[in-house]
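Tokens as discussed.
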């Protein structure tokens, strides 16, 4: 793959769905959840994101952990699962989501090359920090940035401004990666050089912000930015 994004000084990753598999929370309890497991996981993620957008519109920020729990409560009710223990298990699993298989090798490659890396996530520190630590990937990141500091969720521009404020890197030197197409467009509209990690082969969203590149998973990133393997 030819180098498409030369001059990148920092790679900034979304967490949920990009580095970490949010479906792994439900997957761990598939046996007890039964046939509803996949549908529940999909609805949980959908409601979780919808609630962040709606809270932004209402000016009613709450920590992502609270939003995640509220979304799960909706899903359990929709699937008629009235089991407090199931809720506790699923929320606990969300604190230690599995990284995608290619993430550790990709991050090690960037670290060897001296590339600066950070996470920028909707997650609040109380849920992000344990997950990153449990994954064994914490030593790769210069910073784990949370929207909690801005008091608003993505794709509000105040979130993306945290990168320059905390890491001192101008937007044009940042390669931002997200599996959420709307997040990628929001970051591109802000001024980041943005890569959509399109894991599912979904069609692009018709939104402002021009994407710099599209990849199927994170293993393509080193070549994209000219980092030797």
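Sequence:
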């Amino acid at each position: 793959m030819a180098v498409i994004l030369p001059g990148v000084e920092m790679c900034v990753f979304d967490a949920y769905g990009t580095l970490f598999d949010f479906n792994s929370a439900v997957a761990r309890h598939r046996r007890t959840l039964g046939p509803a497991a996949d549908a529940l996981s999909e609805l949980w993620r959908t409601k979780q994101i919808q609630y962040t957008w709606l809270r932004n519109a209402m000016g009613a920020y709450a920590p992502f952990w609270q939003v995640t729990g509220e979304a799960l409560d909706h899903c359990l009710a929709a699937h008629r699962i009235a089991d407090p223990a199931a809720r506790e298990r699923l929320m606990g699993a969300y604190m230690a989501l599995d990284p995608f298989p290619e993430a550790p090798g990709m991050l090690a490659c960037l670290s060897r090359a001296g590339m600066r890396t950070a996470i920028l996530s909707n997650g609040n520190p109380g849920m992000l920090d344990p997950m990153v630590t449990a994954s064994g990937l914490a030593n790769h990141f210069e910073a784990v940035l949370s929207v909690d500091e801005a008091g608003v969720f993505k794709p509000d521009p105040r979130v993306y401004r945290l990168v320059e404020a905390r890491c001192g890197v101008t937007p044009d030197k940042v390669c931002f990666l997200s599996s959420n197409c709307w997040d990628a467009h929001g970051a591109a509209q802000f001024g980041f050089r943005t890569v959509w990690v399109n894991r599912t082969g979904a069609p692009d969203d018709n939104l402002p912000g021009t994407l710099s590149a599209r990849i199927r998973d994170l293993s393509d990133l080193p070549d994209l930015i000219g980092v030797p393997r």
